[in-house]
Amino acid sequence: MPENRYPDINRRTLLKGTAALSAATAFSPLVAGRGAAQDNRLTVWGIVSFTEEGDALLGQQMQDWGAENGFEVEYVALPGSDYATRLATAVEAGDVPDVVMMLQDITLFYAEQGRLVDLTDVYNELKDLGGGMYETLLPWVESEGVVYSIPMQSDVSVMYARLDLIEEVTGEREAPATLDELEQLATEINNPPQLYAIGLTVGRTPDTHGQVAQMILNHGGTLVDEQGNPAIDNPGTIVALEQMKSWWDNGLIPENAASWDDSGNNTAYNSGQAAFVFNPASIFAYLEENDPELLADTTQAPFPAGPAGNFPSVGTWSWSIFEGSDNVDAAKQMITAIMQPEMVQAVYEEVGGRWYPVYRDLADAPFWQERPFFNDFPEIIETARPIWYPAEATPLLLTQLSAVYQTLILPDMLQQVLINDMPPADAAAEAQTRMEQAFQEAAGGQVAATPTA
Q: In what order do the strands lie in the sheet with 41-47?
C-alpha cells in the first residue's frame, strides 16, 4: 500500500472546516479591504452531488470562509440534467451568479465569448498542491495559456455490474471486459420486466451523450477528424448504433429508458431492475450508504472494450467566475480556500466518492485506499482519450463540441435509431449535418441553442 500522505484527513473532523479556512485566509487582503466591494454577498451555483450531506458540506465550507472574511455566501445545488439550460438562461438575462460550477463542455464555451474571469493566478497557486493536479484535466479549462476554471473533481465514468448474476451464468464473479462479452452475458441474464440486463441511458440527457460518445470511440469512430471538423458520420459510429439498436430490439434495455433523465440508470440499478449500467461513482456512494448487500454483489469496472479497444474519456467539473461579478477578488479567495487538498478531500468523502480527486496524492488518503473499487481511477485519468481525438484541443473546437453537447445531437441520433427506426447510416448522416451547423454557429460567435426537453 502506498504511503499515506494525508493520515489526518477525516470528513467528520473537517465538517466545519474552520481550521483549514483560517490558514487559507489568515493573510487575506480581503479582511482589510472588504469595504471596497460594492456588497458583501457571493452567490454560487453548483450541480447536485446526489448526496445531500455532500452538498451541505460544500455550502458550509463556503459559508465558513464567508464568516471569516465578512461575506455572506449562498450556495445553490441544482440538478445536472438541465443545468446547462439554466445557466444559459441566466447568462442571457444578465443575472449570473458570482461563482459557477462548470460542466466540462461549457467552460471554454463561455470563455470564448469573453464571459469568464482569468483564473490563472488561482490555478498557479493550487496546481502543485497534493502531488499536483492531473494535467489531463487542463485542456477542459485552459485556452492559450489562460486558465478560466479551476478543476474541482475528476469525472470518471465506469460500468457497474451485478457480480451475483454474472456468477450464475459463468461461475465467476468477473465483469465483462468487452462489449461482445457484455452482450452475451446480458442475453442470458435478461428477464424483463423484472430485470433488464443493460441499463443504457437513452433519454435526451447529458448521460446519453457521454455513453454514445464512449461507444463510438470504442468502435473506432470519432466525433471529429484530425483538423477538428465534424466527422461523426463514420463506420465506427454506424457500427456502434447498430449494436445499441440490437440491444434495444432484443429487449435488453428497459423500455422506459427513452424517458430517463441522468438519474434514471441510477434508479434502475439501485432498485435491482438493471444488471449493467454506465455511470460515475454516484451509484457506489448510494449503495455504500443504503444497500451494503447489493454493494457486495457489485463491481465498478472499466467501460467494456469495443472492436477498436477501450478508450475512456475523463472530464472535470470546475469553478469559474463570471465577468461582471462585484466581488471577483473575494470569489478567487473563496475558491482557493475550498480547493485546499484537505478541504476538497472532506467533500469527496462526504459525497461518497462520486467526485474523484484532482490532486494525485489524495488517492493515498485512507478513504480511497480502503475502497479498491477506485483502484483503476488514477490510471484512467492519466491515460484518458479526449472526445476531441484525433484533433488537438483548441478553444474553438471545445466551444464547438460544447454546442454539440448542449443541443443533444448524440442523444437525438440514438433516439432516431431506437425509437424512430431510422437506419443507423441515415441517423449518422443527419447528426453530421447538425454538427456542421452547430460548429458553424459556434465559430460565428453565436450562442448555441440549449435543450428544450
A: 72-78, 41-47, 99-102, 315-321, 150-155
d(CA 167, CA 307): 25
Render pLDDT for 192-242 as a digit per residue (tens, 0 to 9).
999 999 999 999 998 899 999 999 999 999 999 999 999 999 999 999 999
Predicted TM-score of the model (pTM):
0.78
The three cell numbers of residue 379 are 490510471
Pairing of strands 41-47, 72-78: parallel
Q: Which amino acid is at 286?
A: Y
Q: Which residues pair with 298 in a beta bridge?
A: 162
Catalogue all structural domains in the chain, each as residue range(s) with its CATH number: 18-154+314-382 (3.40.190.10), 157-311+387-453 (3.40.190.10)
CB-based contacts of 138: which residues, under 8 Å, 6+ apart? 147, 151
Neighbours of 244 (CB within 10 A): 23
319 is written with which cell numbers? 469553478
Give the model confidence (pLDDT) of 282-313 as tens digits: 888 889 889 999 999 999 998 999 999 988 88
